[in-house]
Amino acid sequence: MTKYILLIDDEDDIREVAQITLEYLLAWRVITASSGQEGLFLAREEQPDAILLDVMMPEWDGLMTFQKLLADPKTQHIPVILLTAQVQTHQHRKFAELGVSGVITKPFDPLSLGNLVTQILDGGRV
Predict the structure, then answer these.
(1) Distance CA 106, CA 108 (A)
(2) CA distances from 86 to 83, 93, 99 (A)
(3) Beta carbons of 68 and 44 less than 8 angstroms apart
(4) What is the pLDDT of residues 51-91, one digit of tens each?
(5) CA–CA separation, 71 vs 116, rounded Å?
(6) Which of 33, 108, 120, 124 could disulfide-pair with 102, CB 3.0 to 4.6 Å?
(7) Cα angle vertex 52, ends 5, 104, to 5°?
(8) Structural domains of the chain in order of their starting residue, each with its CATH number
(9) Residue 107: is the preceding peptide bond cis (ω within 30°)?
(10) Taking the model in full, what pTM does it have?
(11) CB 51 within 8 A of CB 80
């Protein structure tokens, strides 16, 4: 099934690699944002199936962006998967307690990104 993904990350390389991978390998539709503010706007307007959200960003970091997504009735239903270089188990537990759908550790293998996203959206934790 074709998915519609919003990728929010301030790093051009990450956005480009993830978008190319998901679009060309899986034929998913991917839109990108380079900031939390832009991502919140696109999430409200576009209503993607899921959001991949970088944790470490300037201005609004991923957790602030996630809180704003949760506070907005137009976006609170959209599953959010965090992208983070933070690999400590206690941090992943904290993210789960906040209500994120899952966590993908950076750097990720571009070829397995789609499988990880699908696994998380199907109810599994990564």
Answers:
(1) 5
(2) 9, 12, 17
(3) no
(4) 999 999 999 999 999 999 999 999 999 999 999 887 666 67
(5) 26
(6) 120
(7) 130
(8) 4-121 (3.40.50.2300)
(9) yes
(10) 0.93
(11) yes
